[in-house]
């Protein structure tokens, strides 16, 4: 049962996309930037800002909508990568690689959106310690979702721009 809900493959696949120039060399700077930015922004936000119930409602709604839209985008990219859309022969290898990376990034973003919703709901409890943890996780995963969506946007643009119309 646990193996069916284990998200580790999605997380590993997402971080494997941080390779330089589609090669084997890993881009640690990008990974550290993504995680460090999320940690710093979450820490600052927890220390200096409070989260209201209205903000929690908005975050839950937005994260749920993002997860749903990304799921539809994943199906579109899967269709592109599996060859159901026409791609010029010269671009097949690179578009397949970018497509697979984009699918991994979208899956990670959906997973992070689900955690973001759960973290936002933790802010509705009466326990101040759970509120602080929920607040921190909400900002942390909000930043991760935002940065990963930017990666998906760039990759999706590359895929669509290089496919035959």
Describe this protein's structure.
Helices cover 76% and strands 0% of the residues. With 165 residues, it is mostly helical. It has a domain at 53-165. α3 runs antiparallel to α4. The N and C termini lie far apart (43 Å).
How confident overall, as mean pLDDT?
83
Helix/strand-derived category reads mainly alpha
Overall morphology:
elongated
Report the sheet-strand fraction. under 5%
Give unreliable regions as ranges: none
Largest sheet: none
> Level of helix content?
over 70%
Instruction: Give the number of DSSP strands.
Output: 0
Give Rg in angstroms.
18 Å
Q: What is the succession of H and E elements? A: HHHHH
Oligomer: single chain
Total DSSP helices = 5
| Gap between N and C termini | 43 Å
Blueprint of the fold:
Elements lengths: L7 H9 L11 H21 L4 H29 L10 H31 L5 H35 L3
List the keywords.
single chain; 165 residues; mainly alpha; 5 helices; 76% helix; 0% strand; elongated
Brief synopsis:
The chain has 165 residues and is an all-alpha fold.
């Amino acid at each position: 049962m646990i193996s069916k809900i284990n998200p580790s493959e999605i997380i590993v696949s997402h971080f494997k996309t941080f390779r330089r120039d589609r090669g084997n060399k890993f881009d640690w700077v990008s990974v550290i930037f993504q995680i460090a930015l999320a940690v710093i922004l979450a820490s600052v936000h927890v220390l200096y800002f409070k989260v209201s119930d209205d903000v929690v409602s908005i975050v839950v709604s937005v994260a749920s909508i993002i997860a749903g839209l990304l799921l539809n985008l994943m199906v579109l990219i899967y269709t592109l990568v599996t060859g159901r859309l026409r791609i010029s022969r010269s671009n097949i290898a690179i578009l397949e690689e970018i497509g697979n990376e984009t699918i991994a990034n979208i899956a990670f973003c959906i997973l992070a959106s689900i955690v973001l919703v759960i973290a936002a709901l933790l802010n509705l409890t009466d326990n101040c310690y759970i509120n602080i943890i929920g607040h921190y996780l909400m900002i942390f995963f909000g930043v991760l979702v935002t940065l990963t969506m930017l990666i998906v946007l760039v990759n999706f643009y590359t895929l669509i721009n290089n496919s035959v119309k």
